[in-house]
Amino acid sequence: MAAQFGRRLRRGATTTAVAAAAVAALSASQAPAAPQSDTAAGDQAAAGATPSGDSAATGNSPYHTDLPPLNTPNKPGASVNLPVTGSAEAGIPASVLAAYKRAEQELAATDAACRLPWQLLAAIGKVESGQARGGKVDANGTTLSPILGPALNGQGFALIKDTDGGAYDGDSTHDRAVGPMQFIPSTWATWGQDGNGDGRKDPNNIHDAALAAGRYLCAGTRDLSVAADLDRAVLSYNHSTEYLRTVRSWFDYYKRGTHEVPDGTGVLPADTGGGTTSPFPTPTPTTGTPGGGTSPSPTPSPSKPGGGKSPSPGTSTPPTTKPPTTKPPTPTPAPTPSETFGSLEDAGTGTLTATAGEAFGERVTVRAKNKLGKPLARTSVTFAVVGATDARFADGKSTVTLRTGADGTVTAPVLTAGEKTGVFKVTAVAGTTKPRALSWTANVTARVADTIALTGDKALTAAPGAEFTDRVEVRTTYKGTGVADTAVTATMITDAGTPAENDKGPYFEDAAGDPVRTLNLTTGADGVLELPEIYADDTEGTYTLRLTTASGATVTVELKVEAAPAA
Q1: How far apart (Å, rounded) are the C-alpha atoms in residues 95 and 138?
Q2: CA angle 208, 212, 216 (to 5 degrees)
Q3: Residue 504: burial class (beta carbons within 10 Å; 0-12, 13-18, 19+)
Q4: Which has the closest alpha carbon to 144: 177, 101, 181, 179?
Q5: CB 3.0 to 4.6 Å from 116: which of 81, 107, 233, 272, for a disulfide?
Q6: From CA 441, how far away is CA 527, in angstroms rounded?
Q7: Cβ partners under 8 Å of residue 330, min gap 6
Q8: What phi, psi does 323 have (nearest 5°)?
């Protein structure tokens, strides 16, 4: 069932003058009267349709309807640079404002074609939660107490049965909108983001919620610098023309200038409900309470238009004021099959394998198709790195959203392996109403040393029956980078031409102190290996020590056994 809402004016707006001011504010917003339907993939319904409540980010939950003051921060056309001070309504709490700007920067880097302005997030945040109840958030941006909408039980609101077991909203029967941007749990499960990099996706955190709202608004092929696309995006958040007009009013207001205020000092909307855990008040009864409750105060009878006399005492005259009427928006035709996202397919991605620290030789490429099976351009595709890995796309990003070209294809950025070896997944997802997902297995292999070399150049000599004074040290590398834990075999050989193990000359000692001429060793940090002591027997001469890695890299060391010169 779609949520049903009546028009709600600000508290105290009971006079003709205030009502006229509200109308003037709406007119100043330049909000369109009949938003158009979105023809791009993933958008929901025509503006004039009545979609189900769970197809909107908020489940069509109620929202604050306060309008901006008529005295905007700057005159139309003036600079949009942020003033240091200004009207109270123009102030946005510091953490909340930082979250909106951070989300704008993230979207500019990963989905630049969307052109998300932070002022749009601020307008939605104002309408949904009064900027997180005036900025009542902790140092990490998490609300000090939950912000919950009413149960979406179909009684005056949409009917959305529980989808999260009460994990986010504490209600295991029906869903409730959650957090400063008022996501319903089922929408958060799809669009939730980690905006502050703490490893969690929390709808109660303003950084996470603001980034999720930005990505939701940028779904499909929307360009929010285009008025029609912006209207579609807002309507996808809450399917109400009044909601669109209210958000548009605050959007225009914030574009004219705003300023930062300390957390917790932001101005709350008039209908906040007194600081309860829900941003929405309990309606005040307008009739007497059954069982002897107090009736409301009588309303004075208005004078007759044109200066006529008021009704005489004892005469009951019904009010002549007509309820406001709203002209429903004109539905626009649904997108044609050639404009509608249909499927996502692999467009020739090869095997994803890379050595630790190096770029993958292959890049993920996909093709989007419409309902007719033809290539579909300008379709948003989100590529993501999933699993226990430190492999990342450019600029250290694990998620990137790009759009398909004229041939329907799009290629993910170059993926670079980290130091963690093993397998993980790379996914590509397109579509919002019925998302299509593809995944590939990627593998990061350990570096294998391609070089082994001595770290010093000292001549290694010893007298017969004595110990070599200097120790042999080598380093294994892969393309110049040290490789730890590399297996190295050290062998005393007869000569380089016939590398058989020598039965005389220098030797090592095993744990029992017996002579051995072959040892299996392993490099340490940065690929460095220092060999144990080497001893000389009584036979003078020049001998060869060979060190070899499993990959076949080899280095030889010359060892001389000679008597010390006579004094």
Answers
A1: 9
A2: 175
A3: middle
A4: 179
A5: 107
A6: 30
A7: 34, 48
A8: -65, 145
> Which residues have C-beta within 8 Å of that of residue 291, sequence separation ≥ 6?
none
CA distance 494 to 517: 11
Q: Which helix (H) or strand (E) holds 451?
A: strand 451-454
Q: Vertex 393, ends 142 and 112: CA angle to 5°?
A: 70
Q: Report DSSP state, residue 81.
A: S
Angle at 457 between CA 454 and CA 461, to 5 degrees: 105
Q: What are phi and psi of 121, to 5 degrees?
A: -65, -40
Q: What is the DSSP letter of 507?
A: B
pLDDT digits (tens, 9 = 90+) for 306-362: 343 434 444 444 444 455 555 555 555 566 777 888 899 999 999 999 999 999 999
Tokens 């329907």 belong to which residue?
408
Give SS3 for 543. strand
Positive or negative: CA dihedral 9, 11, 15, 21: negative
pTM greater than the 0.85 cutoff: no
3-state secondary structure labels for all residues of 20-70: HHHHHHHHHCCCCCCCCCCCCCCCCCCCCCCCCHHHCCCCCCCCCCCCCCC
Q: Is the dihedral of CA 35, 248, 141, 164 positive or negative?
A: negative
Q: Facing residues of 546 across strands?
A: 491, 556
